[in-house]
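Example 9 (inverse folding). The structure is encoded as follows.
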């Protein structure tokens, strides 16, 4: 919920996110997955019964998707918390369900897994700011397909890592990811994301500096153009090359080598786009997962991306990162926008000083 307003999550700051105008969208993502699942289920002999919590914790999404065979096992308050997530998971565990499907991020996965462990398979519909665990489908629609294939007996289970980022340290600019436990999840390697991997080394740093040198030239050659610099160590190297203080985990803006915005929220970016006629967005994919948009950079909303235009997205990555990344992925929260990205088939990726590689976009 806190991604659009630049809070990088809502652990401990949900009230602040609401005051800043953040809108929860987990129900929207859940409904998207359930509607797709209903389409896949049409004509199939599977007989299903759903257990869920009330209102915004599942009951509402199931009613909207017209899944009537459901039982409320936990009545949630108007503003549910992790306590309600765990209470619901306890009821699932006691009842002996076949699989737990949830909508959220790594924190939700942790809460559920702390109750069910590896006893019940876990599958996540991605709707958080940070989703580094290996139990999430790459999009709501793909999650529905995974669920269908698992229930139909077409795929089995695999053990996946449940990891989480310390949001308080994350907001302070420190990347602190910890492995908490493991879970069993339906194994569909094409559509289930792997846990994020960090790729480091002396050679990596040298290549990042080469990439930064080219971007420094490009920025100098385009005076007056707004350059939005996304999160991550690869993009942060551009800040070092420009001798500016680039935040590690936020989205910053520079023009003519000068910082004009730091750690921007969605509305901050839209305001800047009103002031500058030309804009370039510089991003680096998440290692192994391959996500360029939709993981850790939620201020880049569909409205922002449409204003910038796909042709103005500059993707940078080291060869070592690309070697472990099967393709580039986009999960903007807008199916039409994602389809447009996928239809391009390839993105040109800067991999060194005046060195590029065409990298496939995967759905």
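The amino acid assigned to each position is listed next.
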């Amino acid at each position: 919920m806190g991604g659009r307003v630049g809070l990088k999550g809502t652990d401990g700051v949900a009230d602040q996110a609401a005051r800043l105008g953040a809108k929860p969208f987990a129900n929207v993502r859940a409904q998207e997955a359930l509607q797709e699942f209903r389409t896949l289920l049409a004509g199939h002999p599977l007989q299903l019964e759903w257990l869920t919590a009330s209102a915004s914790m599942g009951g509402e999404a199931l009613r909207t998707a017209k899944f009537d065979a459901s039982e409320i096992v936990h009545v949630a308050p108007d503003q549910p918390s992790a306590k309600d997530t765990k209470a619901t998971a306890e009821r699932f565990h006691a009842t002996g369900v076949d699989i737990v499907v949830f909508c959220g991020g790594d924190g939700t996965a942790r809460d559920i897994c702390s109750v069910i462990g590896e006893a019940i398979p876990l599958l996540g519909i991605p709707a958080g700011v940070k989703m580094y665990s290996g139990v999430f489908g790459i999009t709501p629609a793909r999650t529905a397909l995974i669920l269908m294939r698992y229930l139909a007996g077409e795929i089995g289970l695999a053990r996946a890592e449940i990891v989480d980022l310390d949001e308080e340290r994350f907001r302070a600019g420190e990347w602190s990811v910890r492995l908490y436990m493991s879970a069993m999840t339906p194994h569909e390697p094409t559509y289930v994301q792997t846990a994020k991997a960090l790729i480091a080394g002396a050679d990596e740093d040298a290549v990042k500096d080469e990439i930064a040198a080219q971007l420094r030239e490009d920025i100098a050659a385009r005076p007056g153009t707004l350059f939005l610099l996304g999160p991550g160590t690869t993009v942060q190297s551009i800040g070092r090359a420009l001798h500016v203080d680039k935040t590690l985990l936020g989205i910053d803006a520079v023009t003519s080598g000068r910082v004009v915005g730091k750690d921007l929220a969605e509305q901050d970016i839209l305001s800047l786009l009103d002031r500058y006629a030309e804009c370039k967005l510089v991003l680096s994919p998440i290692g192994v997962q391959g996500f360029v948009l939709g993981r850790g950079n939620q201020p880049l909303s569909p409205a922002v991306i449409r204003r910038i235009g796909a042709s103005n997205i500059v993707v940078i990555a080291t060869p070592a990162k690309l070697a472990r990344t099967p393709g580039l992925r986009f999960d903007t929260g807008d199916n039409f926008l994602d389809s447009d990205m996928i239809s391009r088939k390839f993105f040109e990726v800067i991999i060194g000083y005046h060195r590029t590689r065409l990298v496939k976009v995967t759905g």
